[in-house]
């Protein structure tokens, strides 16, 4: 029986519309959305655990279906979305607009489309005779450095029953993704010493010392190209300066300059020695010269955000199973980061595979196509089947 896309799953569209209507931009609370999902699950007889942030303004949701045994599969998604400020939207961002086989709205691709597919499929997972548990893990604050999911993973680690594998539903056009780079973002504060520019040698010019550090960073970035892995794009680790500020007036030697740097590193690369050589340069080459002029001069590094890389062998069971369930045997990597690295680090084998494309994510008129949603539902149906039948000998 063929299914017309136009008639495709009214319940799914309804849930997607409900999820999109919550403005869960990361700077806002996600509690209204989380309570909506908790209520939806509760109506189905499923008890969900909420794991709140310190302020109680945001929460992760964690739920289990099926038998309380070790192993099983975790479906992971974040509930927050990026802002719409300054973007020229032609449709209202916080509601579902359906047109030409596409569902528009902020977060439709990244990643409420996946959440809607998962929620819509919950009743059929309940009806199946699952031989292992299915976990739902919906986080907050992914878009601002994968912050929320960490307490959820801690919760998972404290339980004696743990999922064996995880599918993160970030938008990959339903291509199974086995790897991405890790990221560390830092802010460097250079404290110099101010004086009138006519007496410049008596001051410590924070901008000029920051410039030396930025140059060092640029040299390090060139060196990183020697260590490559052709499965990633670009095939080497990258290090760059993204923002810089300092100084107050031309006739004052600046006493402060700060700049933000970002390292995106390959899974086999250790980030510590790279950042360590930058810090050593500051500590042993620059600071002595600065402090010879003024002992209060200093250079400090502040960690802004970080997440680990993801690398699951493409030949692993999970990667091959997700390839079967999604119907896409062309496994790949992505340039953006996900919570997958954190699950992987916690010992849960992880693959990223979800509906929609990051070409649309974070942009005005973000959308996910009905075909992508349909393909995601089909992956979940195949997963359900696999989870509910005994493996054949
Ligand atoms: Zn995302």
Automatic annotation (TrEMBL):
Q: Which Pfam families match?
A: M20_dimer, Peptidase_M20
Name recorded for this polypeptide: Acetylornithine deacetylase
- Which GO BP annotation is one of this protein's? L-arginine biosynthetic process
Q: What InterPro entries does this protein's entry cite?
A: AcOrn-deacetyl, ArgE/DapE_CS, Bact_exopeptidase_dim_dom, Peptidase_M20, Peptidase_M20_dimer, Peptidase_M20A
| Annotated family | Belongs to the peptidase M20A family. ArgE subfamily.
Per its UniProt record, what SUPFAM superfamilies does this chain match?
Bacterial exopeptidase dimerisation domain (SSF55031), Zn-dependent exopeptidases (SSF53187)
Transmembrane residue ranges: none
Q: What residue stretches are annotated with the Peptidase M20 dimerisation domain?
A: 178-285
Query: Which UniProt key words apply to this protein?
Result: Amino-acid biosynthesis, Arginine biosynthesis, Cobalt, Cytoplasm, Hydrolase, Metal-binding, Zinc
Cite the GO molecular-function annotations of the record.
acetylornithine deacetylase activity; metal ion binding
Q: Which cofactor does it need?
A: Zn(2+)
